[in-house]
Amino acid sequence: MFGNTVRRHVTISRFFNAVSNERLSSVLVGDPFCRLRTQRPVFQRPLTSTTEGIQGVTIRRGRIEDVPGVWQLSEEAMWNTHQDMIETLFKMCENGWTVAEKDGNVVGCCLTHDFNDDLTTGGHFIVSPKMRGYGVGGQILRNIAEEYGERNIHFSSISYMIDTYERYNGAPLSRGDTGGKYFGVFKDIPLPPDALRKYHLSDLRQVELSDLIEYDTSFHVVPRPEMLKIWLGQTTAETLVLLEKGKIAGYGSIRPAMNGFYLGPLYAENTIGTLVLFKALVDLIPRDSNVDFFLPHANEAGQLILKANENTVGLYDTFHKCARKSYIPVLKWNNVFALLFNECGLC
Fold first, then answer.
1. pLDDT value at residue 117
2. Half-sphere exposure of residue 181, counting CA atoms within 13 Å on the CB side?
3. Are residues 199 and 119 in the same domain?
4. How much is the pTM?
5. Which residue numbers delimit the N-acetyltransferase domain (predicted)?
6. Alpha helix (H) residue ranges in 62-181
7. What's CA 306's distance to the chain center, in Å?
């Protein structure tokens, strides 16, 4: 039914050609998308400490040349990413990376993204295992706090880190919804027999991008057109759009990770539509491939899929959505099956 739009074998070939290519792929030619905010000043601040190990560490603004170093940090932390994904995040959040460097190596990082004059998201906070306990992470957080002042910052936190973030914030955090990072092989998608009759699946390139951006914005209090153009434009990504009577009823994207694939975002108007879209995306990749994604716990389809695959899917950890000042809820949080990326998107 979906052969004309999904192009399974072509997609798999493109995915694995991209994964095996050691060169950084170019997500976009040139830089046609204007920033939505003014550029923050580039800073470079050496740390002063008598503690051996932290000496010689510099906190500075990240740049595209840091992609391999940040990717290596991500691998050390056992985050299932791919170098293409890190490069894409650098392009999405230009001038938004804070990097700790020592002896020419990236030993810590954090990502921020300004959606507008009032709202920033943060994440991808990592310190090299060799540098933990020396205050590098604390200095990164202090720099960001100083830089943003009283600005509201949204982020996701593992449960045991909330107290630490509140200490650096100097006040209790505003807490919101919860979700989990799940990974594993999805063998059973519990679709009703007639689930496919009312839907049509289309490749992203066959849909007006403005319509997709409008649909995505219906989930949020702020639009994110620039972010979507770059994330969905990653050369190794594949995006499917769910249509009901010619109107967008959902969309989802999947791309290679180091161990299998990363799925996100995936939004749909109801449980059945979510199941149809999820199955179509999983059908794009080789059978029994590992899939990672961030699932909001309120999503009904997600709970059905987890129950159907409880022997092959595991939970990495539970995350809490937090904000420095006030948590702004996502309008259709229950319809979110997978976040775009837990580190820099509202969802």
1. 82
2. 19
3. no
4. 0.84
5. 57-192
6. 67-76, 83-92, 136-148, 162-169
7. 20
